[in-house]
Design brief:
The complex is a heterodimer of chains A (about 150) and B (about 800).
Chain A: H1 2-20, H2 29-34, E1 36-40, E2 46-50, H3 51-54, H4 58-64, H5 71-75, E3 77-79, H6 84-100, H7 111-116, H8 123-132, H9 137-142
Parallel strand pairs in A: 1-3
Antiparallel strand pairs in A: 1-2
Chain B: H1 24-39, H2 48-60, H3 64-87, H4 98-129, H5 131-141, H6 146-157, H7 161-179, H8 186-198, H9 207-234, H10 237-258, H11 261-276, H12 280-285, H13 290-295, H14 299-311, H15 313-339, H16 344-349, H17 356-369, H18 375-397, H19 403-419, H20 423-435, H21 444-458, H22 464-480, H23 487-501, H24 503-533, H25 563-579, E1 593-599, E2 604-610, H26 611-622, E3 628-629, H27 630-637, H28 641-652, E4 659-662, E5 673-676, E6 686-688, H29 699-728, E7 730-732, H30 733-744, H31 752-764, E8 768-770, E9 776-779
Parallel strand pairs in B: 2-6
Antiparallel strand pairs in B: 1-2, 3-5, 4-5, 7-9, 8-9
The chains are: A mainly alpha (about 150), B mainly alpha (about 800).
Keywords (chain B): Isopeptide bond, Ubl conjugation
GO molecular function (chain B): ubiquitin protein ligase binding
GO biological process, one term (chain B): ubiquitin-dependent protein catabolic process
């Protein structure tokens, strides 16, 4: 399984960071919301993202949940088993979502602009990844005009 | 989705994953291994992403069912092993040693709690990696999600017969242990109870409700049944109350700390039913019960009693009747004490021991100040006031100012006060005593306070018309003799009576005050008028009383007024009648008084005597040093016998012996004779010879008064019936009786039989007619016999 080896590889690169951040679980919730987490793609790209932003994905939220206490929650390094270009689009969506999440009803959300930035050749892969990530991204992609289903 | 996209441009790449390289067995084996790791708390070494993807892939590859079943089996396996390895070994041994047993119970509960916590944590972790399964598979397959599955399995694998029974037993033992006063680990018990609360058998029922709560309630009921009996047998009332109160507190805290608040109601109901309902009455009746607590002012205990009594529906009723009984009993003691006239002080102390000393002091000052005749009245009212004060305090402090208790107290006071047929008389005497000038070393404020209290007691008296009669009598005496402490005080009291009983009640009394004012003016005018013509022989001050308003006889006692006085009277009468045409003046000599200068051997004194006494003394003016026989005096003055004796007694037998009586004794006899006492000496210049006081009415007089009151009542009732019938035209018997009773309640309480007699009389007189149904009456418009009824 190619996926498996990718994960393994990521796991190894993440290891040094684990040691640096072992004191994290004691931090308060507020501090935790603003700290940084690392998202790593299967081909070795990594993205530093605010935890708050990363948690717009249900899967990443659970992954980082200290209650579960899985390796990722301790190391704050999340291996995303996708190519870098996909992870990048996911991160872009997460930022887009958390930026526009709380705007007033009047303000226009540039959904169309955002969707137009998605290169057509990755759409299908991105759709699958978005579904796996349990974010509303795939809904957005499938129903771009119904803004009430955005998030 | 696993195949290449069916449409779109060729540029678009098919996702490379989920290809045929996916192997169910391999993935499941890996996942299974990892789940076992999770179950031994090794999650931190596992990658979430990896396991999540395993589950994801399995669901994606239509292996949801395999995954679900596999997880379920793993959880069951884990629970079974935990039950076997960790719970079963610590089953209590069934020892009888309480301490050992408690330890064993506690150990079992702790283990169960641990297992539960571990299991819930596991299920949370499994839920996290199986999230995709929960999202996609469980709904379509219509099976519970991972979390629910966890609860279900725990219920099935752990909370089953041997284990569950042991847990329930242990929880009960722990509760029992704590009730026996030993400390237990509450958090452990709470942990286990929470497990019961978390597990549902259906939507609304937890196994706590099904298995644990009934057991707890049953056990509690047994425990408290015995406890109630034990407490009642072993403890005195205050201890019983405080024990029960702390039991209530304990159970309440127990329920909230480690049971469920839903048990609170039923459990406390058990306490009510076992500790309070069967025992309250017995506790109240204990020698150390309600009466003792009231006697010794145990406010805290009484508060406790009250708190406990209001918990149960019948409790307040029991308490109320006990309080009522207690008051009535004390009241009867006061009644009895006042009846035995001779033991004026001793009797009054009985009902309120701790106030005895204070009361005695007051009693003594009164004995000095007031003539012995009215002492029982004062003692009685004082006793009642003290009792009222005491229960008011109790009511405020201990009975939470509860309205129902208050009404019982009022009822009790009414019942015992109206048992004393002299109540109205006594009360009026008491007020009289306080409104009289210069008798007490009391300030106006103190008197005011006492009178205010008296009014509250006055409310309890049913027969206010009797009181009115006595009060008028006393008031007139105060006014005529100038004995009122102050006009303000009198008017204040009158205002109070007015607010209590209405305008009619005080109308005549206010008339008396008006008469007093008008009389003062008239006397002044007369004095001016006289001084213009000649120097007055003697000063005359007259009080003109409107007839009817004052309680004085229509025909005054006769008396031959000596010419010296008679001429002045005639002069005034001429003056008055010249100003007020068509009026008639009747002299009431028995109410007057005179200031006379009397020359004795030693010196001249200014003496204040009653008019009758003056008339008697004037006889002696002409017969220097000679004896006057009783018969001679009677003929010369024509004063009625009893009255004459009374005045002679005051002149010859009191502190100031202006007359000498032969032979000397306390009572006046028909054969006695009198001489003027020339040798009389007294240090002061002025003194007043009080007429020997009218005592409380003797029985004949009282009977007479009562008869007169009965007569008056008949008239009032008839008038009331006619009034009611005139406005209603037709009324049933019961309605009429009820209406009349309620209208007259402010004056007295008419007997239904009395009302009935009045109705019959009115039917005879053709005011009313009997209705066809024999139960109602009709009003007959009539033009005659009107004046006879229109009295009030």
């Amino acid at each position: 399984m190619a996926d498996n080896s990718d994960v393994e590889m990521n796991h190894e690169t993440a290891e040094p960071v684990v040691n640096n951040s072992t004191e994290d679980p004691s931090e308060s919730n507020a501090a935790r919301a603003s700290d940084w987490v690392r998202l790593q793609s299967s081909d070795g790209f990594s993205y530093l993202v605010r935890r708050k932003v990363a948690q717009t994905s249900g899967t990443i939220r659970t992954m980082l949940d200290p209650l579960g206490g899985y390796a990722e929650a301790n190391s704050r390094i999340c291996a995303i088993n996708e190519r870098g270009i996909i992870v990048e689009k996911l991160v872009e969506y997460m930022s887009f979502k958390s930026h526009y999440e709380n705007v007033g009803p009047k303000e226009e959300i540039p959904v169309r602009d955002f969707l137009e930035r998605i290169p057509p050749e990755i759409v299908l892969e991105l759709l699958l990844a978005a579904d796996y990530q349990d974010s509303k991204f795939h809904t957005l992609m499938l129903h771009p005009l119904t803004t009430d289903k955005l998030w | 989705m696993t195949t290449a996209p069916r449409r779109g441009k060729p540029k678009i790449m098919a996702p490379k994953k989920h290809g045929p390289e996916f192997s169910v067995d391999k993935t499941w084996t890996e996942l299974k291994k990892n789940i076992r790791e999770i179950q031994i708390q090794n999650a931190s070494n596992l990658s979430f992403e990896e396991n999540h993807r395993f589950a994801y892939n399995m669901v994606l590859n239509k292996q949801g069912e395999t995954l679900y079943k596999g997880v379920k089996d793993l959880v069951v396996e884990n629970l079974d092993s935990m039950a076997k390895e960790r719970i079963e070994p610590v089953f209590p041994s069934g020892t009888t040693d309480a301490t050992v047993l408690s330890d064993e119970d506690s150990r079992l509960l702790r283990k169960v709690k641990d297992v539960w916590e571990e299991h819930t944590n596991n299920m949370i972790r499994l839920g996290q990696i199986l999230k995709y399964m929960d999202r996609v598979y469980t709904k379509t397959a219509n099976v519970p999600q991972t979390q629910e599955l966890g609860l279900e399995l725990f219920l099935k694998q752990i909370m089953k017969t041997p284990i569950k029974d042991h847990i329930v037993r242990s929880v009960l033992n722990q509760i029992r242990h704590e009730r026996d006063g030993c400390p237990i680990g509450r958090s452990t018990v709470k942990g286990c109870v929470d497990v019961f609360i978390s597990l549902h058998i259906d939507h609304s029922t937890t196994i706590y409700k099904r298995d644990l709560e009934p057991a707890i309630l049953k056990e509690s009921e047994e425990f408290y049944l015995n406890e109630g009996v034990r407490l009642l047998a072993e403890c005195d009332a205050p201890t019983f109350l405080s024990s029960v109160e702390s039991r209530f507190k304990d159970e309440d805290s127990r329920v909230h700390h480690y049971l469920s608040s839903q048990t609170s109601g039923p459990l406390l109901a058990i306490l009510d039913a076992t500790l309070l309902v069967p025992h309250l009455l017995k506790v109240i009746e204990k020698p150390s019960g309600l009466d003792f607590m009231i006697d010794s002012n145990k406010f805290d205990d009484l508060t406790r009693l009250m708190d406990l009594c209001v918990k149960v529906p019948s409790g307040l009723q029991i308490l109320r009747s006990a309080i009522k009984e207690s008051i009535v009993r004390r009241g009867k003691a006061i009644n009895d004490a006042s009846r035995s006239d001779d033991s004026t002080n001793a009797g009054g102390e009985k009902p309120v021991e701790e106030d005895g000393s204070a009361k005695k002091d007051k009693g003594k000052t009164k004995t000095r100040a007031a003539p012995a005749g009215i002492q029982p009245a004062l003692t009685w009212v004082f006793g009642v006031l003290t009792l009222k004060d005491k229960f008011d305090e109790l009511w405020r402090k201990s009975f939470k100012s509860n309205r129902e208790v208050e009404s019982s107290m009022i009822g009790a006071f009414q019942s015992f006060m109206n048992m004393n047929n002299k109540a109205s008389e006594f009360l009026s005497f008491f007020i009289d005593d306080h409104l009289k000038k210069g008798l007490k070393g009391k300030t106006d404020d103190e008197v005011e306070v006492v009178l205010e209290k008296t009014i509250t007691v006055f409310r309890f008296i049913a027969e206010k018309d009797i009181f009115e009669r006595y009060y008028k009598r006393h008031l007139s005496k105060r006014l005529l003799n100038g004995r009122s402490v102050s006009d303000d005080a009198e008017r204040g009291m009158l205002a109070k009576l007015k607010t209590e009983c209405g305008f009619q009640f005080t109308q005549k009394m206010e008339g008396m005050f008006i008469d007093m004012r008008v009389s003062a003016d008239t006397s002044r005018d007369y004095a001016n008028h006289i001084s213009q013509s000649k120097t007055p022989e003697l000063d005359l001050s007259v009080i003109i009383m409107t007839s009817g308003a004052w309680p004085v006889p229509q025909t005054p006692p006769v008396c031959i007024i000596p010419p010296r006085l008679g001429s002045v009277c005639e002069s005034f009468q001429r003056f008055y009648l010249s100003r007020h045409n068509g009026r008639r003046l009747t002299w009431q000599p028995h109410l007057g008084s005179a200031d006379v200068n009397i020359r004795f051997n030693a010196r001249t004194h200014e003496v204040n005597v009653s008019t009758f006494a003056l008339v008697i003394l004037l006889l002696f003016e002409d017969v220097e040093d000679d004896h006057l026989s009783y018969n001679h005096i009677r003929e010369a003055t024509n004063i009625e016998e009893g009255e004459l004796k009374r005045h002679l007694q005051s002149l010859a037998c009191t502190k100031f012996k202006i007359l000498r009586k032969h032979p000397q004794s306390r009572e006046i006899d028909d054969a006695d004779s009198f001489t003027f006492n020339q040798d009389f000496t007294y240090p002061g210049k002025k003194f007043k010879i009080a007429t020997v006081l009218s005592k409380l009415e003797n029985n004949d007089e009282r009977r007479d008064t009562m008869e007169r009151i009965e007569e008056e009542r008949k008239v009032i009732m008839e008038a009331c019936i006619v009034r009611v019938m005139k406005s209603r035209k037709n009324m049933s018997h019961n309605d009429l009786v009820h209406e009349v009773s309620s209208q007259l309640a402010s004056k007295f309480q008419p007997e239904p039989s009395g009302i009935k007699r009045c109705i019959e009389r009115l039917i005879d007189q053709e005011y009313l007619s009997r209705g066809d149904d024999r139960k109602s009456y009709g009003y007959i418009v009539s033009l005659f016999y009107w004046s006879g009824v229109q009295v009030q």
